[in-house]
Amino acid sequence: MEKLIEILKKYNADVDYYTNEHLIDEELLDSFDIISIVADIDNEFDVEITAKDIIPENFNSAEKLYDLIKRLS
């Protein structure tokens, strides 16, 4: 999870990724951030996030995003 938090902080360091559950809903991450985050995750965790995985439910919190990474591993 720490590696994921490090990745997310590159795009918005002011967010508390441990508690925020509305990253997309509150527009704390935009579509360009998401594309970059997906590429970083693919490289760091050796998983492939596909277009069908890129939905707000998977990206609204670091915890949900980490769950997605674990499912794809």
Structure, explained:
- This protein is mainly α.
- Helix content is 52%, strand content 0%.
- The chain is globular, with a radius of gyration of 11 Å.
DSSP E strands, number: 0
Top CATH class: Mainly Alpha
Q: What class do helices, strands and sheet pairing give?
A: mainly alpha
Q: What is the number of independent domains?
A: 1
Strand content: under 5%
Radius of gyration: 11 Å
Helix content: 40-55%
Number of H/I helices: 4
| SSE order | HHHH
CATH H-tier superfamily: ACP-like
**Shape field:** globular
Gross CATH architecture: Orthogonal Bundle
Fold blueprint:
Elements: H1 2-9, H2 31-45, H3 56-59, H4 62-72
Helix pairs in contact: 1-2
Main traits of this protein?
73 residues; mainly alpha; 4 helices; globular
Sum this structure up briefly.
With 73 residues, this protein is mainly alpha-helical. The chain has one domain: ACP-like (Non-ribosomal Peptide Synthetase Peptidyl Carrier Protein, Chain A, Orthogonal Bundle), CATH 1.10.1200.
